[in-house]
Specification:
By secondary structure, the chain is of the alpha/beta class. It folds into 2 domains: 98 residues; 128 residues. It has 8 helices and 10 strands. α2 runs antiparallel to α3 and α6 runs parallel beside α8.
Length: 279
């Protein structure tokens, strides 16, 4: 067994909160550059260039890529040979508190969904923990902005709706979203599981690197088809028209009940932020 101090987890999370909001991933930045080269709309090209410049300024000046620094969502892999010297949830929460305060990141969380008083430090975070083999602790933060999150949806389809029903739902969800999630977007799709598992899958899908292919050729082909159909909608960068509505579509699937076909779409804006560390 290996022991990891809670203090080290807090220090790591503090740093991750700031870095995730300052530094856009190289895969996303390259995807924006590639999209600009291919974009047919002059306005679309200009807007993509502005996204690229904005990311460069954020990196150089260490300021947030977007004013909405998001709900702090964590995907944690806890090795079964790891002992945390302290409380894991409390350690991550304290890291969020410090990271958002020290990094001058906007605090966007209200303590109750109906009695909407801001907590003042962007806590509590949302933490998903998977226990995996090994003696390491992997922590990934994915700050999730409200604009894109609001355009997400879960739908309980009938098994008879099949592949076509899932595809049509995904495309229609992006179409109805229009400019609201600040396109170009990344579209996470969850298929199967239960109502809640499906939504989790669609959010976890957003962690994949742009340019990666699903290991199952069946779903890899579906991702390609959905990306084409979405970009054919003509919504374009920031909703002002063009061929670049989405940079990628990522699918995650899970076994489900014989009577069910859950499908979920979680949309991520072009500021596709996530940052991880392994302890």
């Amino acid at each position: 067994m290996r022991t990891i101090p809670a203090k080290l987890i807090t220090e790591t999370v503090t740093k991750l909160c700031m870095e995730a909001n300052y530094f856009l991933g190289n895969d996303v930045l390259q995807a924006l550059k590639d999209a600009k080269d291919k974009e047919e709309s002059p306005v679309g090209r200009e807007l993509l260039e502005q996204c690229i410049v904005n990311a460069q300024i954020a990196k150089e000046d260490e300021v947030p890529i977007c004013q909405d620094t998001g709900f702090a969502v964590f995907f944690v892999e806890l090795g079964d040979q790891v002992l945390v010297d302290g409380n894991l949830t409390q350690a991550i929460t304290e890291g969020v508190r410090k990271g958002y305060q020290e990094g001058f990141l906007r605090k966007s969380i209200v303590e109750d969904p109906l009695r909407r008083k801001n907590t003042g430090d962007n806590t509590p975070p949302v933490i998903w923990v998977d226990v995996v083999p090994g003696d390491r602790l992997k922590i990934v933060i994915a700050p999730k902005g409200g604009g894109s999150e609001n355009m997400s949806e879960v739908k309980m389809l009938k098994p008879s709706d099949g592949e076509k029903g899932v595809k049509d739902f995904v495309v229609d969800r992006v179409k109805r979203s229009g400019s609201n999630p600040c396109p170009p977007v990344i579209v996470g799709v969850g298929i199967g599981g239960t109502y809640d598992k499906c939504a989790w899958l669609s959010k976890k899908a957003l962690l994949r690197e742009i340019g990666s292919k699903h290991p199952d050729p069946y779903y890899a082909a579906m991702e390609d088809e959905l990306l084409k159909r979405i970009n054919d909608l003509g919504i374009g960068p920031q909703g002002l028209g063009g061929r670049t509505t989405a940079l990628a579509v990522f699918i995650e699937a899970h076994p489900c009940h014989i009577a069910s076909l859950p499908a979920a779409v979680n949309i991520q804006c072009h500021a596709a932020r996530h940052k991880g560390a392994v302890l």
